[in-house]
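Hi everyone, sorry if this is the wrong subforum. Our group has a chain we'd like a structural model of before ordering constructs, and none of us has done structure prediction before. Sequence below.
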Amino acid sequence: MALRAVVVGGGIGGIAAAVALARAGIDVQVHEQAQQLTEVGAGVSLAPNGLRMLARLGVGEQVRRVGARYVSAQLRFSDGRALRHEPYQFAMAGQNAGIHRADLLALLAGQLPPGTVRTGHRCTGFRQDDHGATAVFADGTTATADVVIGADGIHSVLQGFVVAPAEPVFSGVVAYRGLVPRLAEYPDGAIRMWMGEGRHFLVFPVRAGQLLNYVGFVQTATAVRESWSASGDPAALAAYFDGWDPVIGRVIAAISGPGGSGFQWGMYDRMPLPRWSSGRLTLLGDAAHPMLPHLGQGVNQALEDAMALATLLAAGPGAAGVPRALAAYEELRRDRTARVQLGSRRQGAGWDSSGSQLVDRRWIYDYDVWAEAVALTR
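Answer:
Right subforum, don't worry. Here is the predicted structure as tokens:
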């Protein structure tokens, strides 16, 4: 009998996990609290380690088509002067790519059999015994399987069944982010980061280069709620970056024009968790390791989680071997993601001090989690 899995959470991490599980021959259902499967927000940067997993999930060619490969990657001071750096200290030209979050989610969801995803299911509880695990939903329904995977984000309900509940930690930074149409003044295929004291500004292309994703990061003493959909104020953003490279001003001016959008996002993370799993329950993505975006690894690490988890579950002896497979998954993933979480904090401080600290990312980019997981099964 095929192993049965329930994934709670229909974001990119949860859907990627479902695709990986289904491709491994595991019977999977996804339960998402929203009424429809969708991603709000803007763009995400895909690194070589994440792109490698997307190819294994069967969407590599589609990502190349709807995403935007970077042909150049530049770090700049606030006035536009270039900062000398090694390619592996930022994005890798020709190897990293930008993609709209909604486009990536749609590509992954398109790999799943019809009926795999069930929306309108908000998880409120969990129970398990030696023979199975059950997710409980607000409408009174339940879903029982051999394994339950909590991919329910930074405010994960299921995390509380693994470790003592704790509030996310505000980073002291608010991000103004969104999309603007492609600008004639901005070079095609370029990802750029401008750095100053207490703030930095990032731009990269998405949707085959037809849109630009921007994020302005600003330090603040006032906690701002964690939200992908709170409206941002372009005038406030313009004031923060007044006197910087004029290219930034043109991007900000386009926010209020046709096709522009702007949101405000309080940035939160957590200290690395002491454990991810309990019996037949495990965590994945932001439920396990929410991280700041300063190394561009949030989605990429969730993709690694998905591939590692599916590989180890598929290699086990069936339902009886689930707890052991989850222990192996946690052992493989926890130290690496903790290092990325803490490195993201350090890199954020570096961006906000005019690039005084640049992280060598080769240990992130060169890693193949699938190969590491397969090695554990031999």
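For your construct planning: The mean pLDDT is 95. Residues 297 and 375 are 23 Å apart (CA to CA).
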